[in-house]
Amino acid sequence: MTLTIFGSTGDLSLRKLFPALYNLYSLKKDADFKVIAIGRRNLSHHQFIDMIRPKICEYARLSFDEDIFNEFSEHIVYYQMNLTEADDYVKLNDFYHENQIEAQTFYLALSPRFFHSVIEGFKRLDQIERNNVVIEKPFGVNTADMIDINHKLMQLFPKDHVYYIDHYLGKEMIQNIKTIRFKNALFKNSWNHEMIDSIQISALEADGILNRGAYYDASGALKDMVQNHLLQILTILTMEESENQHEAQMQILKKLRINQILLGQYSGYRNEKDVDEHSNTETYAELQCFIDNERWQDVPIYIRTGKKLKKREIVVIVKFKALEGSPSNLLEIKIQPTEGVYLQFNIKKPGAKDQIETVQMDFCQSCVEINRINTPEAYERLFEEVFHHQREYFSSFEQILFSSSLIENIQKPKPFIYDHSIPYSLTEWVEIPHNY
Questions:
Q1: pTM value?
Q2: Is 229 a catalytic residue?
């Protein structure tokens, strides 16, 4: 298996892709591969290996082993080229022939502004239709650009050779949502408007935009997080049980109605590097949504995401309807950084007459070392999917396009300014205490 990574010296490749490949190699899963690392910088092989070494030490899930890393680095070839220069693709084609590389996977870990140049360059490669291509989000600067990119790809590759990646679909606890929902009678039979009061999906970050000013100021929280990652979580939480997950998710998106929206911008955002000093780009977004179908009628679903907040976490909280005189049952699915499941329910307080108290069952999956060792990172799982021509953990283009149109058509209010905490909210935040 040969993997060509366009954008091999970028942040995504260094923090996510190469550490994931190192993990797979360490576990001897799909260890027989070659990586062509394409970059614009004039680097020798050893200079590139020295570049990825500290990133693998820092970000790889498995402990760094010098001998394993040295073996792993022998599978990597650094190749310098200009992505916008047509003749460089002719030279790349010659390189593939010289190294007897006939079929492979191209990975575009690039800004969307380079997609068109790379796709045009693909035309200069022999038998391009035999290869796979993986596209990282954002999939275009807008919906029209997304359609154009997909059209050009379909002219070169068979449809089932194009993979649109959303790494959230590879996260352990997001995949676990289906098991929690469909393999427990307790939840499967109560997962509807008769039993559920509301759902909250939160993806909060303590950091600001870091060094992503140019990208982030053109996208904002809605496009960066809601349009893809959080709508993926929402549709998996609410879809019908089906062998065709993509179609089940699409049925939810078609019935999704955004009722209210609240936007914010953290104090000091306009002073960040590469950000417009008059920018109204949102760094916080909160939406109240409804799904207009029989299962979910009148159940509010709240999506919220933001940067520069008090903590970093991705959680789902399902609040069940309260019975008379009793607190609500709560189910929390912890996705990141802690992975696990929390359930709050009611019992009679010991020794008291008819007095109710809440108790908790709190399972922390990632607190157990063997679970951390055995749980693959999202990109590990996604690489394995591509290498074995599986598509379950990838988005469909129809789904991406519909989500993009949904977000683009939102009438955006002016964002308020916040400093680590949100002064306004569309609903009461559910805060759940934990023992860790």
A1: 0.90
A2: yes
